[in-house]
Amino acid sequence: MIVLDLALNAVATGIVLGSIYALLALGLAITFGILHIPNVAHPAIVIAGAYAVVVLNRFGLDPILAGLLWSIPFYFIGLAFYEFYARSFESRGGGNTLQSLTLFFGISLVIEIALVVAYGTDLRSVRVGYVGESLRLGTVAIPYRFLVPALITPVVVFLLWLYLSKTNTGLAIRAVAHDERAVSVAGVNPTAIKRHAFGIATALAVIAGAALVITGPVDPFAGRIHIGRVFAIVVLAGMGTIPGTLAAAIIIGVAESLVMSFASPSWAPGVAFAILLATLALRPTGLFGGVR
Amino acid sequence: MRISRRQFTKLSAAASVGLAAPAIWTKGRAQNRPVRVGCSASLTGPLSGTKNMVIGYELWRDDVNAAGGLLGREVELIVYDDQSAPSNVPAIYSKLVDVDQVDFLFTPYGANLTATIMPFAKQRDRFIVGILTLASNDQLKHDKFFQAAPWGPDGATNWARGFFDIANSTGVKKMAILAADTEFSKTAAEGGRRVSEEFGMDVVDFQMYPPTNRDFSAIIRNIRATEPEAVFVCSYPADSTAIVHGIQEIGLGDSARLFGGGMVGPQYASLMESLGPSLNGIVNFHLYVPEPTMKFEGIESFLDRYRPIAEDRQVDPLGFYIPPFCYAAGQFISTAVNATGSLDQTEVSNWLHENPVDTVVGQINFDEIGNWTERRVLMIQFQNVDGSGIDQFRQAGKEVIIDPPDYKSGELVPLMDARKT
To answer: Which segments cross the bilayer (chain A) (predicted)?
Structure first.
């Protein structure tokens, strides 16, 4: 009976955790999965978003609402980021993976140091009424600080999927990654489209930051914990698939939670990569590669 | 050209004066130059939360200089940023010794960074004060090393023994141990297991978790399933927060009456503020708390002066954990130098080995390898924490000392009873 309880709780916790992982990975699913820009600064931008949310939360604003408000200025920051990247690298023919990695790694460090200088290195958290409480369904208990941010994910995933699949701009974002020249011929400015996509990804980062800081406190270096996992989720899902990102994240979340309950917690961080390696060996395009 | 005997004598005298002049000048200059004390500190990087240690050094330096300096010479503090990276530390200490020619050294913060320079300190026979470094001199046994923190002898495995003393005195028979998968925590957890067995307790669960873990629901459920009476936890700030939230959300069951021990985090104002009443009932280690049994000379004045500087620099506003011990580290030097009237490292070290030192963190005696002769790691229990205001922790009664008995300031309240308040 105890084993069954543990298993049920592990699966429930894993689904909730996976949803939060998906939110962290969605921005990267656009920049890396669709635009093929290895934006390793994405987790650092998420943490910058979390700090921005903490600032507004001090004035009593709900973190999720704060995240939505901050997503607008972050969208424009994303545009500026991409403009810098396009002018400094792509337009000079230097947009190869190694150079891009170096650039975004540098940006990541700059963001971390800027946060240290501005806010110090103490852990920062938000105040929400539901921390410390759980939703209890029989023997299953799900902490609200995980459940509430996890509930945002399906909504964001649905809206993003709708936008990328059913609107002209969304389709242009997908098209520009496949054939930039063809998009140009069709009268669309590929740089403007990619800039817009990067802006959306950055806006999503701040919403992910809001979710993350509800689950626990953050420090300027907290993004490093998630960097491997979010890349694993995007690749496992299959590059650029938005619903697939949610599914892949939930698979990883549940697997980690089961390993933590029934094996050793020390093995949990390796689960994402174990699943990734096994999947890529059998299905190189990822679990949902080709599904849009 | 021929040189007469008289000319040769004049030339020899002039050459002698010329050769001796730099030495005479340098000696005179050395007698006037400041007494230099140097160290590295983690001003940036993952350990930069400890950078408030510098305030402790600075206040000590200012106090010594205001009182006329050391042997009439001004004290100069030289601090370099080690960026929290062990690889940076050896070069910094070589520079401190060979280029800056410091007279005394403090170690960087903690055992990991300090491990890189202890062989150097011993090889160069340098006086060095350990800043919260655990067991850094146990192997080398350098006779000019002195520990600023109260880990006591056998600190590596015994620093948290007070938690098990409390467990034993309250009749705990079933102990669970949870520790981050890092060297410091693993050593403490293994030490905890040994002490548990020594007391005849059954270790019903022993779990390690990766330090990046932030969800403890599954782990806490596993612990609860074993129905422990006490849970010894060795964790770091972010995981400590998640664990405290976790026991509130999932629950530990009715059997648990003692929880905590080796959690890093609930010593820092930012976490105390964010966790607030969730901390009630947790018994955890600390180095200093403002309880009536800890009224050492100078500590209140130190903390009063620390506070505005900390607020200005955006570091821990309470400053109970590290800064007083950095001030005390400076007091080791100033007390011994004034007592011996010498800057000679051997004389100063010998004096410290033979005499007690009065500091802002109490009177300290050192053993032959520079550890405190008595363990004075406090086991405090959070009681009656109300709301998230940080000022409440400046008053007595919120972090009540349960162990060691000489500093006890209140009675242990069973975990669940304390959490109801």
So the answer is: 7-34, 40-57, 64-82, 102-121, 142-164, 197-218, 230-255, 267-291
As a whole number of angstroms, the distance between CA A10 and CA A140 comes to 9
3-state secondary structure of B290: coil
Contact call for A125 and B241, based on CB within 8 A: yes
Q: Does B140 touch chain A (CB under 8 A)?
A: no
A1 three-class SS: coil
The residue whose two tokens read 């009424």 is A129
H-assigned helices in B250-381: 269-275, 299-313, 323-340, 345-354
Q: Where on the phi/psi map is residue B7: left (φ > 0), alpha (ψ -120 to 50), or beta? A: alpha
CA distances to B154, B257, B278, B416 from B419, rounded to whole Å, are 33, 11, 7, 5
The domain locations on chain B are 35-156+297-364, 157-291+377-420
Q: Above 90 in pLDDT, residue A267? A: no
Q: Is residue A292 part of a domain?
A: no
Note the ipTM here: 0.77
Q: Per the CB < 8 Å rule, is A141 touching B181?
A: no
Q: How far is B316 from chain A (nearest CA, A)?
A: 8
| Gap from A21 CA to chain B (nearest CA, Å) | 12
Which alpha helices (H) appear in B67-108, and where do they start and end?
A: 89-94
Separation between Cα atoms, residue B105 and residue B126, nearest integer Å: 8
User: What are the DSSP calls for B326-340, one per residue?
Assistant: HHHHHHHHHHHHHHH
Residues 6+ apart with CB under 8 A from A98: none
Q: How far is CA B327 from CA B40, B59, B116, B351, B377, in A?
A: 15, 7, 23, 19, 18
Which alpha helices (DSSP H) does B159-262 contain, by range? 161-169, 183-198, 217-225, 237-249
At A272, is the secondary structure helix, strand, or coil?
A: helix
Architecture of domain B157-291+377-420: 3-Layer(aba) Sandwich (3.40)
Q: Does A127 touch chain B (CB under 8 A)?
A: yes
Q: What is the 8-class DSSP label of residue B229?
A: S
Cβ within 8 Å of residue A84, ≥6 positions away:
none
User: One-letter amino acid identity for A128?
Assistant: V
Q: How far apart are CA B91 and CA A156, in angstroms?
A: 50
Contact indicator for B154, B191 with CB cutoff of 8 Å: no
Q: Does B395 touch chain A (CB under 8 A)?
A: no
Two tokens, residue A23: 């939110």
Which structural domain, as residue segments, surrounds residue A59?
A: 2-282
Burial of B87 (0-12, 13-18, 19+ CB in 10 A): exposed
Q: Which residue has the tokens 């429930």?
A: A12
CATH code, domain carrying A154: 1.10.3470
- Cα dihedral angle (A169, A171, A173, A178), rounded to 10 degrees? -150
List, run by run, the mean pLDDT of 10-residue segments along chain B (421 residues).
65 61 50 89 83 96 96 96 90 96 95 91 96 89 96 86 95 95 83 92 93 86 93 91 90 91 91 91 96 95 96 91 96 97 96 97 95 95 91 94 95 89 60
Q: What is the distance between the alpha carbons of residues A23 and A45, in angstroms, rounded to a whole number?
A: 13
Reduced to 3 states, what is the DSSP secondary structure of residue B218? helix
Per residue in A80-123, pLDDT tens?
989 988 887 777 665 567 778 888 999 999 999 899 888 877 78
User: What backbone torsions phi and psi does residue A37 show, to the nearest 5 degrees?
Assistant: -100, 120
Q: Take residue A107 and report the two structure tokens written for it.
A: 């940006």
The span from the CA of A135 to the CA of A93, in Å, is 53
- The structural domain count of chain A equals 1
List, in order, residues 6 or more apart from B354 with CB less than 8 Å away: none
In angstroms, rounded to a whole number, what is the distance separating the alpha carbons of residues B180 and B233? 9
